[in-house]
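pasting for the record
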Amino acid sequence: MEASEGWRRRTIDGGHGGWAWACSRTVGDRERARERKKKRHLLLASAASTLPTATASAAAAAPSFSEIPGSGGVKALELREGSGEVPADGDQVAIHYYGRLAAKQGWRFDSTYDHKDETGDPMPFVFTVGAGKVIPGIEAAVKSMRVGGLRRVIIPPSQGYQNTSQEPIPPNFFDRQRLFTTIFNPTRLANGEGSTLGTLIFDIELISIRQHS
C-alpha cells in the first residue's frame, strides 16, 4: 500500500492527478470487493465448522456435514441421533430450534427456547409436514429425522425464505425486520449478493410426531 500511495503522489505531481486518482479508486474498489467476498466465504466456512480436533486421527473421525438427498442443497450435521419414528407428509411435528443468519455473522434471529408458555416452559414450534407453510429447508431436514434427534442444518437461499409469510416467523418485531430487510435487501440483491444473503443455519430438535389419521 505504501508503494501504491507513493506512485499516486508522484503521478499527481506530474500533472495527471485526475487520472491517477480514478485508477487508484478503481483498484481500491476491486480490493474491497475481493475482501468482502473473502469475508463471506470465511463466514460460511465458520458456520459449517465442527468441533475443533487436536490430532489428525481425531480430525479424520470428526463428523461432517452431508447433503440431504432431494433437499435442494440443504446440508446436515448430526449432533444426536434420534431413536423414534420418522415423520411423513400430513403428520404434525413439534420441534425446537435455534435460527441463525449467516450474512449477519451467525446472528441468532429466533429460538423456540425463548418462547415461553404460562408456566415458563419453552414452547416448541408445531407444523404439518407437507403443508407448504414452512421454509423448504426445515421440512427437508425434519422429514429425514427421528424423534429425539438433533441436527444442525445449513439452508441455502433457494430453500430458505422466499417471502415474509413463510414460517417460522420471529415473533419479535425488530428481529423480524432485521431478518427480512437483510434477506430481501434490493440493493444487495441487485449487486449479485443473493447467493449469500439468505443462507440460514438451524439447530433442530425433533420433539414429537402426531401421525396423520
